[in-house]
Amino acid sequence: MTHQITGELYKKMVSNGAAAIENNKQEVNDLNVFPVPDGDTGTNMSLTIGAAEKALSSMTPGTLGNVTEATASALLRGARGNSGVILSLLFRGFSRSLKDKDTADAKAFANALTAGVESAYKAVMKPAEGTILTVSRVSAGVAVSVAESESDIEIVLEKTLEAGYEALAETINQNPVLQKAGVIDAGGKGYLYILDGMLQAMRGVVIEKETPAVQESGKADFSQYTAEDITFTYCTEFIVERSKTIKEVNRLRDFLDNRGDSIVVVDDDAIIKVHVHTNDPGAVLTEALTYGSLLSVKIENMREQHSEAAGAAEAASHGTDSVMDKPEETEEMKEFAFVAVCAGKGLEELFHNLGVDRIITGGQTMNPSTEDILEKVVSAPSNTVFVLPNNKNIIMAAEQCIPLTDKRVIVIPTKSIPQGVTAMLTVDMAEAVDEIEAVMCESIKAVHTALITKAARNSVYDDTKIKKNSHLALIDDALTASGNDFNSVISAVSLALSELSPEFITIFTGEDADEKETEVVSGFISSDSPNAELSVISGGQPVYRYIISAE
User: Fold this and answer.
1) Angle at 502 between CA 500 and CA 503, to 5 degrees
2) C-beta separation of 437 from 413 below 8 A
3) Where are the alpha helices (DSSP H) in 262-415?
4) What is the pTM of this model?
5) Whole-angstrom Cα distance, residue 550 to residue 443?
């Protein structure tokens, strides 16, 4: 029986929830309807709540309010993909409901679940039924009802889960896409795994992770540097618990700016999280204490780490290291800057040449977190930063950066690499910021994107049965062709693009494309669209053998 949730218990609940989704993430991934390899729902949710587990692991539990706030803040910064962002919003509303509480009883717990649902619904512009939102809403409603007469939180959460699984089973009938594929909603399933893990923690059961955590990619190539290139020796990270008489956080930013670089200051309701490279961590921490108590501190000597890191980078020099963002020490501030998400050396070089200041390595299968994006926004040489997500599953994570920095962040809702390229081509540096935003947003409407890849799983998509490893082509996310004959698939794509009467067609070749095959693709397109200006660019992107832009 559990009648009160304390900060210590909640920490265990988050840890168990993270282990539960990690152990079952592949099952959740397999529910994805989209047959293309993508930033899978289970993986994104696991990485998102894993960020909270990591943050809490070094934190001594205080009040429930403090622990829930630290959890929500970590989830927000670590959110990946749409499912991860929605998960973070559910926890954000939950934490705000319990902000001032030392503990929570059954009613407070149930009300907090409802507050989480309200937070998520407010953030989603067009909430759809048959999703994680539906599952969370229905289950939270039952929690409130049960808590009216039941004080045991374990029983409340049991009934919550029962209602959640009933709502999950119904998602197949509520969402037409799920109905065609014959599956339930992946995000709803993942959410229930997390809640079930939290229930097990209440019962004293510790869930051990069965598989290693997903490793982060895109590490910097330290072999490019010598120890002398490290201007500031100590990588210093800490979290400050905000006091009631909090000083203006901008003053802390100014203080850090005079004493280091690589500065990231995330200002949240209850905490301030700081990352800075400095030669005097003692002075930095002393100043930090004037803003509140230190909840965690990590200091690393980057010079000592250099030799080991350089050796590891040398061994991996033929891997998939990204083009580095190496700002000049004298980099001047600009009126506005650009941040773009992409993967593949060719695409990274293209975006740099188009004027993008910071590149985030990511995209399909590699959804960057909100904090990944935020770090690039903060380091960009302007107080006004345009962000191009270039993937529909990254847009929400990018938008979460807006309240986390004093900079003006403008997210251009680019859903594909071609849209991102076109948006950058329209930029007129002489125009005002609002005009640039309007032109970029308007320009991407005329861009059509074709994706050529292989099916990652057996699936039913757009009423068509798709077999794993068959060739697959989509135009603007609509299935155009699939099958074992590559030429037939390409021919279908070429004909479909010709019906759009494009003036410009660009073929971005992926890392698996070869020259002879590319000639075949170009031949089909040239024949079917003879009046279009055709270009071929080596993108080097993973996942998609070819990305084709038509406008």
Assistant:
1) 160
2) no
3) 281-288, 302-315, 345-353, 370-379, 395-399
4) 0.69
5) 13
